[in-house]
Give the backbone structure.
Amino acid sequence: MTVADHLTFQELKERVKKEKDPVARLRFLAVYHAKRGLGAREIAELTGHTPRWVHATVKRYNEGGPGALADFRHRNPGAKPKLTPQETARVAEALEGPAPDGGLWTGPKLRRWVEEHLGKRLSLSPIYRLLREMGFSLKVPRPRHRKADGGAQEGFKKTSSSGSRRRGRRGGGSGSSPTTSTG
C-alpha cells in the first residue's frame, strides 16, 4: 500500500498522539501503520475496521492530505426545520389561545391547525417535538380503573382516619429489630 509523503513518519506518529477527535485519531493511526509497511488486513485487525476501510482511509489521505482525515460530521447542520421561525411564532400565538374546539390543545388538533393555517402537512412526531421545545407538557387525567366505584372511594376518604397509616419501618414502629436468643 502506497502512502503519500504529506507528513513524515514522525509527524504522523505525533498526530496520532495529539489528535483530540477519536475518529481522526483512528484514521491517522491507520495511515501511520500503512506508512510503517503493515498490510490492510493487519491494520484492520489493529483498528477494528475492515481492510476496505483501511484502503479508503489511505486513499483519502493520499488525495487530500492530513486535512482529509478530519471528521466532518461535526459540521453537519442537520435537517432543515419543518417550520420557519415565523411559522413557529404563529404556532406559539395560536397555542396561547383556546383550541379550535374549545378543549385543550392536543397533537392531532395542532397538526390540523398547522395544515389549515400554514399549509404544511406534518406527522405527529415533529408536532410533539415542537410542543416540547415550546415548554408544553402533556396534561392527562389521572388514570382510573374501569370498575372503580367513585362513590365508595369518596366515602372511604371521608371515614378513614389519618392516624391509621403505618409509620416507621415495617414490622414495628419503634425502629429497633427484635432480639432472639440462641440458647
About this structure: The longest helix spans residues 22-36. Residues 112 and 121 are 8 Å apart (CA to CA).
